[in-house]
């Protein structure tokens, strides 16, 4: 059952470029499933914005990743906040969560669409101990905007079944990994995803393009899941 | 909102509420936040769109929260006492 919580901002960090990470502490335990989101009141008139929870379910703290690039109401609200301030969050909300019996799983994200996948991947690798292949394909524009890289590389090193690919649409000459769009990278790395389940989070255009590519690569439509609010 | 947490979902069905809700079908993406917040008022239909099952299913605060937490602002809230549109502003 969702609740309204007053969350204390205990940490505010600029990870890279427009991406800020906030750690919120609630007065009581905040129970949720990896992939769910909170609706944050960002204006006095009751206007709310939805943000995927960036951390794994654990106790009375959650992390949010805010992309202030759009510079809308939510961006300005979060930029104005400081450690020690409180925010009103309603949650947990959302049905973009992991199925009970997953095997091979592909995650495809662009920009801050990677946020719900951070706790999902941790749950699969560390919580469920999934031994089958798990791939994360993350599309960004510039190398200087990348964040959480050490964390995902460490997961890749520690789990032979986890593969992490970053695709840059505007790479420098020095960038040696994938470039272009996320669907270019999918086709480049694998001829078939038959039997895989896919989770997508990003722009509607990306969802449509990747869905099309994945279906051609063998993924059933009912095995393709995406976050609707993004 | 007060300092303490507030759990949405009325334990007792209200007898009569003053807020009337309306779903703008074209805007609804089936995110289902309304169903999570006001489950006695909204449900998802076979097309994954929100339907209203009972205008008096939840208290006014929860109906308003359901509308405010909708990511696409697909729910309108009217105060039947005044005829004023409460949400979206």
Give your account of this protein's structure:
The complex is a heterodimer of chains A (230) and B (89). Chain A has helices spanning 73-80, 117-127, 149-158, 182-189, 204-216; strands at residues 3-16, 19-25, 37-41, 48-52, 61-67, 86-93, 105-110, 134-140, 162-168, 178-179, 197-201, 224-226. The two termini of chain A are 22 Å apart. With 230 residues, chain A is of the alpha/beta class. Chain B has one domain (25-87): 2-Layer Sandwich (Alpha-Beta Plaits), CATH 3.30.70.20. In chain B, the strands form 2 sheets. Chain B has a 3-stranded antiparallel β-sheet with strand order 2-5-6, with helices on one face. A two-stranded antiparallel ribbon of chain B has the order 3-4. The radius of gyration of chain B is 12 Å and the shape is globular. Strand 1 (3-16) of chain A pairs antiparallel with strand 1 of chain B.
Order of helices and strands of chain A: EEEEEHEEHEHEEHEHE
The total count of strands of chain A amounts to: 12
- Helicity level of chain A: 10-25%
Global mean pLDDT of chain A: 95
Mean pLDDT of chain B: 90
What is the level 1 CATH name of the largest domain in chain A? Alpha Beta
Q: Which geometry of chain A do the CA atoms define?
A: globular
The CATH topology of chain B is Alpha-Beta Plaits
Give the CATH topology of the largest domain in chain A: Rossmann fold
Rg estimate of chain B, integer Å: 12 Å
Which stretches of chain B are poorly predicted, pLDDT < 50 over at least 5 residues?
Answer: none
Helix-strand string of chain B: EEHEEHEE
Number of domains as seen in the coordinates of chain B: 1
Which sheet architecture does the biggest sheet of chain A show? Answer: 6 strands, antiparallel
For the record, the CATH class of chain B is Alpha Beta
Q: What amount of the residues of chain A lies in strands?
A: 25-35%
Poorly predicted ranges of chain A (pLDDT <50, ≥5 residues)? Answer: none
Q: Give the amount of beta strand of chain B, in percent.
A: 15-25%
- In terms of quaternary structure, the protein is heterodimer
Structural class of chain B: alpha+beta
Architecture per CATH nomenclature, i.e. the level-2 architecture of the largest domain in chain A: 3-Layer(aba) Sandwich
């Amino acid at each position: 059952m969702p609740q309204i919580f007053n969350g204390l901002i205990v940490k505010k960090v600029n990870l890279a470029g427009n991406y800020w990470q906030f750690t919120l502490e609630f007065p009581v335990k905040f129970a949720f499933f990896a992939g769910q989101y909170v609706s944050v009141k960002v204006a006095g008139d009751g206007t709310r914005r939805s943000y995927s929870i960036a951390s794994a379910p654990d106790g009375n703290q959650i992390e949010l990743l805010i992309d202030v690039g759009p510079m809308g109401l939510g961006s300005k609200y979060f930029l104005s906040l400081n450690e020690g301030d409180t925010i009103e969050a309603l949650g947990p909300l959302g049905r973009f969560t992991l199925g009970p019996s997953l095997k091979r799983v592909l995650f495809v994200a662009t920009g801050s669409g990677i946020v719900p996948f951070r706790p999902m991947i941790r749950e699969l690798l560390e919580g469920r101990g999934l031994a089958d292949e798990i791939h994360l394909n993350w599309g960004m524009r510039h190398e200087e905007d990348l964040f959480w890289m050490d964390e995902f590389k460490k997961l890749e090193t520690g789990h032979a079944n986890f593969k992490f690919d970053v695709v840059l649409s505007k790479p420098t000459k020095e960038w040696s990994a994938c470039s272009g769009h996320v669907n270019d990278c999918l086709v480049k790395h694998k001829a078939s995803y038959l039997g895989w389940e896919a989770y997508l989070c990003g722009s509607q255009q990306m969802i449509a393009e990747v869905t099309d590519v994945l279906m051609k690569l063998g993924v059933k439509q009912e095995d393709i899941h995406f976050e609707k609010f993004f | 909102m007060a300092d303490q947490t507030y759990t949405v979902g009325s334990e007792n069905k209200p007898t009569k509420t003053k807020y009337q809700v309306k779903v703008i079908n074209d805007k609804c993406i089936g995110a289902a936040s309304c169903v999570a917040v006001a489950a006695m008022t909204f449900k998802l239909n076979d097309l994954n769109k929100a339907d209203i099952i009972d205008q008096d299913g939840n208290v006014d605060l929860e109906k308003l929260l359901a509308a405010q937490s909708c990511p696409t602002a697909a729910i309108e809230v009217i105060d039947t006492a005044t005829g004023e549109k409460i949400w979206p502003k």
